[in-house]
Amino acid sequence: MNNMLNDEAIYKKILKSIVEHQLPPGARLPEDKLSEAFGRSRTSIRKVLQRLALERIVTIEPNKGAHVNRPSEQEAQEILDSRIMLEPLLIPEVMKYWSKANSKYFRAMLKEEKEAEANEDQAALIQLTAQFHYELAALSDNSVMADFIQQLCYRSSLIIAVFGSRHSVSCDCGDHLELIELMDSQQDKKAQDWMKHHLVHIKSSLKLGVSDGQKINFQQLFANTE
Amino acid sequence: MNNMLNDEAIYKKILKSIVEHQLPPGARLPEDKLSEAFGRSRTSIRKVLQRLALERIVTIEPNKGAHVNRPSEQEAQEILDSRIMLEPLLIPEVMKYWSKANSKYFRAMLKEEKEAEANEDQAALIQLTAQFHYELAALSDNSVMADFIQQLCYRSSLIIAVFGSRHSVSCDCGDHLELIELMDSQQDKKAQDWMKHHLVHIKSSLKLGVSDGQKINFQQLFANTE
DNA sequence: TTGTATTTTATTGTATACAATAAATAAGAG
DNA sequence: CTCTTATTTATTGTATACAATAAAATACAA
Q: The whole model's pTM is what?
């Protein structure tokens, strides 16, 4: 049962549901419904929602409550641009401590990715793709940077929900393997370049500039074509 | 009067006091005392403290409440290393939009810094030094990065409180002016290098490796020297 | 005294009650 | 019927009450 989860556990459950698109951008998160679902008071739920809000996973509007954040086009670009700047920069730091054990661990993760892909388990696939990036960053000896990257990965999941094509999420299982191989063979510069291109590719796969549901042209949408 | 400040205002007041070292690292932040001081219920105060905790300005230990964060040596290094990585990277972005108006604004800020220095107003000096860095970052067209830098600047203020020499805080009023002049004359590369050296200099001015009160060698300290 | 056990005090953790606000519905005027 | 204005309903905002925990002070035995 869900009974008597602590705040951290509630936080993780909600976050997971959002990252895996079970709770899509824009979804309302009413305090009393969640309170009932988790068997805790609204106080605890509010605490969790406020945390998610500070991490920009959720937005809280005064007197209107919490919703899953729906990133704007600008936010999407800023987040991807940040990742394009930062993640390649961390590669050399990661490679300093790169070991056989690391390689094995990440190859196992890629296998899971492949399985999720085979089973068309979209939720698991999204989760694993993000995990790959932030666990890699966590191998650098700078947890301040790693935590920031992790947050950007979670936010990227929202971006994909809003602006992603099918291509955005499933394209790069093969690609991730390439990186591991470059790391194994100590090719710093190539690994760094790979990461940059990988992220640029993800960014370019987004359907930016399509004004997703914000200002719909009803004239065009319902034009009489009979 | 302080009566009826909203949460944001309370947050800013507490943050300011911490950044300016009125509330030093390690200081307790009891909910009921703050609640009384601001004329609001503990609920509001808790919300603010939890926000500060997520921003790593404050630490909250279960059943022990909130204290102003006392950064470890490792945390200090990670934060400074992050700034050394990131702030020079943002300089080109900032320079794209650099204008006469910006120059004027920042020169005015430097004037305030000088005044604070002349009046030996340590609090104002610390605040202005941090402000210089994060307002500069805010000129880049990436608010995600700018917000992160801002947080690192606030955390740096804690680092200086713990590991800083007098030198750390007051050394670089003249220096900041040099940067503005490089920006005015569009010397991208030099401005970038300057920023890196500036931050490296700040880092090296810290008294790291002195184990500040953590694990004192009493044997050595009270060795009989008579 | 010194060390342990017990009580007291101070402080945080959590739930709930009530107030305030926004959204949805219903009522009434033109 | 349409638009505006009340009224109701649902939901969030805030304060407070009480429980749980940790720290401090006291009492007691060796």
A: 0.90
